[in-house]
Amino acid sequence: QVRLVESGGGSVQAGGSLRLSCIASGYTGSAYYMGWFRQAPGKEREGVAKISPRSISTTYADSVKGRFTISRDNAKNTLYLQMNSLKPEDTAMYYCAATSRNTGLGTPTDWNYWGQGTRVTVSS
Asked: 41 with 54: CB under 8 angstroms?
């Protein structure tokens, strides 16, 4: 059974930075595409970033391009999201996800496995 556990969320002021981590277990570290989604109160869950199994390609939502960086360390079965220049509109629950499909960020239904989420709050 694949298990994903996020950490690193917190409260920061606008312009600040946070680094999210997601530790995966139950599968080979390089077997899946990995990604981050977020869901703000009252809004749908949206894709933020995605990385291919061997880090050859990455995909970002337009809203985070140039500010967020996704990376992974397959030897540690860990996924990261470095978030810089945070804005209040980045406030959301952030979820780690895994999929075997190469379909860009896609929709939540394209992803097979999910973590429980870590909360990010950005104040102005």
From this structure: no
Q: For the chain, how many helices (H) and strands (E)?
A: 0, 11
User: DSSP 3-state helix, strand, coil percentages of the chain (rounded to 5)?
Assistant: 5, 50, 45
Tokens 């409260």 sit at which residue?
11
Backbone φ, ψ for residue 122 (5° rounding)? -115, 120
φ, ψ for residue 115, nearest 5 deg:
-90, 180
Tell me the pLDDT tens digit for each residue of 45-100: 999 999 999 999 999 999 999 999 999 999 999 999 999 999 999 999 999 999 98
